[in-house]
Design brief:
The structure is a homodimer of 183-residue chains.
Chain A (H helix, E strand, L loop, with lengths): L1 H10 L4 E2 H13 L7 H13 L3 E6 L7 E6 L1 H11 L11 H7 L6 H23 L13 H33 L6
Helix pairs in contact in A: 2-3, 6-7
Chain A binds a DNA duplex (28 and 28 nucleotides) through helix 2 and helix 3.
DNA sequence: GAGAGCATGTAAGAGGTTACATGATTCC
DNA sequence: GGAATCATGTAACCTCTTACATGCTCTC
């Protein structure tokens, strides 16, 4: 399960609380290929502690709620390493918009085009979001490994969005040429 | 929920049993953007019947198990139409391989490359599977709408796989040039 | 005074996966 | 004799989402 291993990956860099994992780790970096819900992070941390991959201690605070700080254990590091070296099978992807399009034969061309235009806007926003993440150009021979890898994951996100948008545009053009349904 | 609407889409063309939906509809056409599990199809059909979107009757057979044939109702047709005309939000996509890559900074270059090569094989097979689905060239002005739409969904699948594979190749090349971790 | 930030947690439910059970027939 | 096909269904389980609850502090 990737959530477990993403958490292990973050905790392998430094001890963190559930709150920090949510707001500073997941939401800021991996959310576009592995979004994580707050409730699930807390639940998963509990499960991971029972498996002894992490340990937690409470940091008391007077003016704010106490924090429960999680550290990775050696067991957790071994598990992370094992998983990182394991070949991943293809992940099942689902795309509701394609379900919609596939069954849209009775919709009018303009309705189909309007739905395609809407998807184009959404994917455009997504792409724009990726492009606004400042990733400076780097020299391959001196770039830190983690920066390189973060850059590569973001690059895939951008490519997929661009390919999707191109496909939408092509599909819109083709739909314009399609004989319409009768009223 | 797209499974419900995919089933409505199929039943809108003709009455079908759960078994036929699984083996002749989902597995043969939409599985690459909406795979459906047998157990879930049966569960969902039950739920859809309680919502009165479909009706079922049992067809008795002597030599084989009886069949429960489902028909779409007018309520089901209205729901399908409503959904088909509704703008879909972006669907959350998760990609375990990117989680893996993102945290692979301590792996040796060769290990990372080996994992990338494996993904390339998997995506190559996927692409090959799409390409082996015979979709003849068609004339936009006379093509049946359902054929056009099926063709377009498949086209997106191919594009995404091609873009993914290109990204893998580029990433492999770059990783070759990356200074390695120390042993 | 309202709302945002800090921080953890619970509860309920939706959706999907895996595995198993039945039992006749057909094919190798 | 063993496996595949036909056909439906149940049960347990996993993952993820949504909504809610607490209560203090700081800022506008």
């Amino acid at each position: 399960m990737s959530l477990v291993h993403a958490i292990l990956g973050f905790l392998n860099r430094q001890p963190l609380t559930g709150y920090e994992l949510k707001t500073q780790c997941f939401d800021q970096s991996v959310s576009y290929f592995w979004p994580a819900d707050q409730a699930q992070i807390y639940k998963t941390l509990e499960k991971m502690e029972s498996e002894q991959w992490v340990e937690s201690q409470i940091k008391f605070q007077n003016d704010r709620p106490n924090r429960r700080l999680y550290c990775i254990t050696t067991g957790g590091q071994n598990e992370l390493r094992r998983w990182l070296e394991t070949r991943q099978p293809l992940h099942v992807q689902r795309e509701p918009f394609l379900v919609q399009l596939y069954f849209s034969e009775d919709l009018k061309n303009n309705t189909i085009i309007e739905l395609l235009e809407h998807q184009k806007i959404l994917h455009g926003k997504q792409l724009h979001g990726y492009e606004s993440i400042g990733m400076p150009a780097f020299n391959l021979h001196i770039v830190p490994r983690d920066v390189f890898l973060a850059n590569r994951t973001l690059n895939l996100g951008k490519r997929m969005e661009k390919a999707y948008i191109e496909w939408i545009e092509e599909t819109i053009n083709m739909t314009h040429q399609l004989p319409d349904v009768e009223e």
